[in-house]
Every structure is written in structure tokens, then in C-alpha cells.
Amino acid sequence: MEKISIMDGIDAIRADEGLCSTVYILSDGVKKLMIDSGNGSIEFGFTPELVLLTHGHFDHTRGVKDGWKSCLKQKDWIFNEPFHVPKDARDYDFEKMGFGKFELEIIETPGHTPGSVCIFERKNRILFSGDTKFAEGGIGRTDFFAGDEDEMRKSLMKIRALPYRLLCPGHGEFEEG
Ligand SMILES: [Zn+2]
């Protein structure tokens, strides 16, 4: 397991890249907000204020413990593998949220799954892209259950229009955009 500093107030935790999503931890100095949670193999040692899930695949969601607040698009409330819906998850009922010095926007990017989202941090222009977009032009698979190639194409166009300078995907390397 390694912890990487993305910038002041944002860390990434990476474990087994293939089986466990990268977990991003934003801090406002006191509270912590998590983007994706890994597959349950990472021991965090704190309870986040909120977990924003990019989609419902278990390697991103199984790290959410009972009682933690988490958001997952309702379209991904699919109750069979490889999906896993945390017990107390609720639907995203907001498109923007502030957290400390960060401004987060929830951008719907279906394709990899019906309820996939990317999270764009507008002030520092960081895109948390889940399994929709990876470094070196990689894109998420659409051949899993409920994947959709056409939707993916549209979502990638949407992402292309965003002025991000750093891509922070759900697996693999980070990339300057
Ligand atoms: Zn996935």
C-alpha cells in the first residue's frame, strides 16, 4: 500500500492496482472526504465525512463501512456482482459541493456502468475519472454487465470538454492533462 500526495489536501492511497481502486482522500484540515473506497482491503483508521463513489463496482465500493455516509448514483444500485451497493448509500442529490478549499462537481458519465460519474475539482482542475478514463488514452471497459459503448463515447466527449490539468483515475497512473 502506498500513499501519494497529489497536492496540499489531497492524497491518493493505492493498494493492489488491479483488484482495488485508488482511493482519494481530501482534507479540509479537520474532516476528510473520500472519493472511492477500494475493495475493503485498506484500513483507513478514520471515518470520512462522506464517500463519493464514482460507480458501483465492488473494487470501488466495498471499502465503505456500515454507518459511513456515501453517495452512489441510483442507476448503479444493482445487487449482483461485480456491483456492490454499500448498505447506507444514497443517491447523489446534488451536482456541486464545497469541501474546505475544494469545489467538486458531479458529472454524469455513463458507459462503464449506467451510474458512472466523474468528479471535477474546478479550482485546481483535477478530474477524478473513476473507471471512465485512464492515463495514456485508456478508457473503461464497456463489456461488463450494464456497460454501454455508445454512452461511453458521449461521456468521453463530455470529459474532453473539461479544462482539467490533472487526471486522477480509478486505477493506474495519474496524468497531467
Ligand atoms: Zn469499474
What does this structure look like?
Helices cover 9% and strands 31% of the residues. The chain has 177 residues and is mainly beta. The protein has a single domain (2-176), classed as Ribonuclease Z/Hydroxyacylglutathione hydrolase-like (Metallo-beta-lactamase, Chain A, 4-Layer Sandwich). The strands form 2 sheets. It has a 7-stranded mixed beta sheet, with no helix packed on it. The two termini are 26 Å apart. The model has no long low-confidence stretch (mean pLDDT 96). The structure holds zinc ion. Residues 55, 57, 112, 131 line the site of zinc ion. Zinc ion (ZN) is lined by residues 55, 57, 112, 131.
Bound small molecules, by name, code or SMILES, are: zinc ion
User: What structural category arises from helix and sheet content?
Assistant: mainly beta
Number of strands: 13
What is the CATH topology descriptor?
Metallo-beta-lactamase, Chain A
Give the CATH H-level superfamily: Ribonuclease Z/Hydroxyacylglutathione hydrolase-like
From the structure provided, what is the oligomeric state, counting identical versus distinct chains? single chain
Query: How many helix segments?
Result: 2
Sheet-strand content, in percent, reads: 25-35%
Radius of gyration, in angstroms, nearest whole number: 14 Å
- The dominant shape is globular
Largest sheet: 7 strands, mixed
Instruction: Report the end-to-end length measured between terminal Cα atoms.
Output: 26 Å
Low-confidence stretches: none
Secondary-structure element series? EEEEEHEEEEEEHEE
As laid out across the biggest beta sheet, the strand order is: 1-2-3-4-5-6-7
> From the coordinates shown, what is the CATH architecture?
4-Layer Sandwich
